[in-house]
């Protein structure tokens, strides 16, 4: 029978056997999946694991600081933070196609991990064991929706599955590959991770890069970061965090509409709110949020975020819409 204890025991043993005395790195994204995967691998191989947090510039407000603080405090893991904003933004320049964005982001992640790998080996000196393994928090739905399951269509390339480059030199460790999100949360809890990490709403590895419909630029990211922070703040203030699965906030950068703000005409961009409820992200329904909360978010975003003159609500279930817009 399935218990979190069994899963942990089984994986710890398998990981120890696979890794031996060598080393592994784990990409941390701030989300539940990578945090649980890291904690599990840490339990198996301890200090042979180094976590790498890639700040790709596509993170939400405050996210980097949260990883640096919360996760390290909870696990005592060795953490390497890499500032890779310029690298990612340069690679994404001029790209609007969602799948192309996903592949670029997946590839750049790996390039940064390779660099980190070389640095970790160099720091360990001549006696250092090689870093041969990359830990990823891939879940069962990521595999299925990237076309890795049997008989399924490729819906979108999750950055850690279909978005991986072909010349990957790491061997992968993916201890959550057979699990759904609720099971991952239970495993995380059993491993002693704090509630703030285990109950965190999902956030995709490619970050805000797939929440800007159109080209990704620093200016647009800053704008979306502001709008997203407002939405999150108001949802939390209304006590709705546990009622919704997640609420992507999307910038329609290629769309403009006419508005009137202050005493003049504006020609700005719409922001889309996409609150959903779901059990496992494979299907979802749009959340019936209270009108007052929606009104507050809308007023604040149009008042506080430059260049945004309209807020719209996505009332599409999955299917036919996916949760993220790209
Ligand atoms: P979709 O948009 O496919 O999303 O309905 C399903 C769930 O997966 C998340 N998501 C991702 N997570 N890397 C991730 O780590 C990705 O590339 C990725 N794409 C989507 C999404 O936020 C939702 O929870």
Automatic annotation (TrEMBL):
GMPS ATP-PPase domain: residues covered: 2-200
Taxonomy, superkingdom: Bacteria
Position of the signal peptide: none
Residues passing through the membrane, by range: none
EC number from the UniProt entry: 6.3.5.2
Catalytic activity of the protein: XMP + L-glutamine + ATP + H2O = GMP + L-glutamate + AMP + diphosphate + 2 H(+)
Chain positions recorded as ATP binding sites: 29-35
Pathway: Purine metabolism; GMP biosynthesis; GMP from XMP (L-Gln route): step 1/1
GO molecular function: GMP synthase (glutamine-hydrolyzing) activity
Keywords: ATP-binding, Glutamine amidotransferase, GMP biosynthesis, Ligase, Nucleotide-binding, Purine biosynthesis
Assembly and interaction partners: Homodimer.
Function: Catalyzes the synthesis of GMP from XMP.
Name assigned to this protein: GMP synthase [glutamine-hydrolyzing]
Gene symbol of the encoding locus: guaA
